[in-house]
Amino acid sequence: MKIVLASNNQGKLAELQAMLAPLGVQLVRQSELAIPEAEEPFRTFVENALTKARHAARLSGLPALADDAGLCVDVFGGLPGVDTAFYATQFGYAKGDSNNVKALLEQMANIDNRRAALVSTLVAVRSADDPEPLIAAGRVVGEIAREPMGSNGFGFDPVMFIPEFGQTFAQLPVEVKNANSHRGKAARQMMALMRERWWI
Fold first, then answer.
1. How far is it, in rounded angstroms, from Cα 108 to Cα 113?
2. 114 among the known binding-site residues?
């Protein structure tokens, strides 16, 4: 089965393709089908993911899968949350992973409470008007490290320190990270839902 991924993020495509491999589905990035990115006007991950999935399904005629994920920092009241990808732009930096990390470390320089969660919400629809979207969520709690460590992963992985491993996500081997990450947890739930509801 071919499913359009409502994202142009190469890191997400690689992770989700690997995680969903047992289903035998083929993920196609929406940009490969000339589908523009959807607006994300909402303040929750689930609303934005659903909007992105419906948009990609409507323009492709294919089932669609969307991921809305972000970093929720306790001391910031759960922010940056849905604005994670644009975090650095609030502080005068260009959009990008390395600038996001730089801005976060600057904002947290004198903060001792470094607890944070990475959250991933996956939504899949069979069609744009699917009345029963599949929704899966994964969450991993850790601490923001004082400096980036490791070269695997993307986003905030270099500063997301996971106490149970004693390392950041970017220091873990890819297969270990995928098995324990927020996206990995959401993907396992999504696989179970697709098998149950879509008969994949």
1. 9
2. no
Tell whether 11 is in a known binding site. yes
Whether residue 99 is annotated as binding a ligand: the answer is: no
Q: Please tell me the pTM assigned to this model.
A: 0.92
Total domain count, the chain = 1
What is the domain range of residue 146?
A: 2-198
Distance of CA 23 to the CA centre of its chain: 20
pLDDT in tens, 17-37: 888 999 999 999 999 999 999
83: annotated active-site residue: no
In this structure, what CATH number is given to the domain that contains residue 69? Answer: 3.90.950.10
